[in-house]
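hey
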């Protein structure tokens, strides 16, 4: 198995789902089996286990480091959104410690293979990326129920750690390194300002270069003003977040007004 250093298999074991007639049940069984066989914990590199069915929060856990993972699967492309459950439940989870990391599996139904597989660490989840859906109509079985979408496009690139990208597997060491790189977002001192830190990380992503200048990040001043209308010191806030990202090893200071992504 790949999780112990061998080649990752990207195809599902189709025969295990033969007994199911529903497509959604088949996909659930196939994807959960594949993750159980092929995926290691991105936090410690150890084997992960599957929870018993119908656990309300997570699907997998690591017995060694106790990280938990919820699995979401999508056909065709990953897209910009993940359809999730109840909006209120999701917001409550974000405000508690009972929030798992997300495994996102993108599969191809033509040959029952994995196209992309990534983990989004839980510290990238903030209320701003949770979109409220319209309540179900009065004629629906669950009239008035409000669901939510997770907006993946609003998560910085470093929050999308790929095991498989376009059917090509990443090395185990890179996955483990990528996970460690952003753990500072769980620090108590960072939590209160996490929305701002993620905003600046997204601005850096949009620049699309390894080295950049302070003035480059200032070009997002107007967009940040619109997002944070009560803050009258946007440039100060940008500098503050860059300092924090430098202190946490996410960035390096090259020279006055110039930074480099680590």
């Amino acid at each position: 198995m790949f999780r112990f250093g061998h080649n990752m298999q990207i195809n599902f074991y189709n025969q295990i789902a033969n007994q199911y007639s529903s497509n959604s049940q088949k996909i659930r069984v196939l994807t959960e089996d594949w993750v159980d066989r092929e995926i290691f914990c991105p936090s410690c590199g150890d084997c992960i286990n599957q929870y018993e069915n119908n656990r309300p929060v997570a699907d997998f856990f690591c017995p060694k480091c106790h990280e938990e993972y919820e699995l979401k699967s999508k056909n065709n492309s990953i897209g910009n959104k993940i359809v999730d459950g109840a909006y209120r439940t999701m917001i409550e989870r974000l405000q508690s410690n009972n929030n798992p990391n997300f495994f996102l599996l993108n599969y191809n139904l033509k040959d029952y293979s994995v196209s992309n597989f990534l983990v989004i660490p839980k510290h990238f989840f903030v209320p701003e990326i949770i979109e409220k859906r319209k309540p179900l109509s009065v004629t629906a079985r669950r009239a008035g129920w409000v669901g939510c979408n997770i907006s993946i496009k609003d998560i910085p690139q470093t929050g999308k750690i790929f095991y498989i990208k376009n059917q090509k597997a990443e090395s185990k060491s890179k996955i483990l390194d990528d996970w460690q790189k952003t753990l500072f977002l769980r620090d108590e001192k960072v939590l209160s300002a996490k929305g701002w830190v993620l905003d600046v990380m997204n601005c850096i992503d949009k620049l699309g270069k390894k080295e950049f200048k302070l003035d480059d990040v200032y070009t997002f001043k107007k967009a940040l003003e619109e997002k944070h209308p009560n803050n009258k010191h946007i440039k100060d806030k940008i500098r503050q977040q860059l300092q924090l990202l430098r202190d946490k090893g996410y960035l390096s200071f090259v020279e006055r007004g110039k930074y480099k992504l680590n």
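The first helix runs from residue 23 to 38. The radius of gyration is 20 Å.
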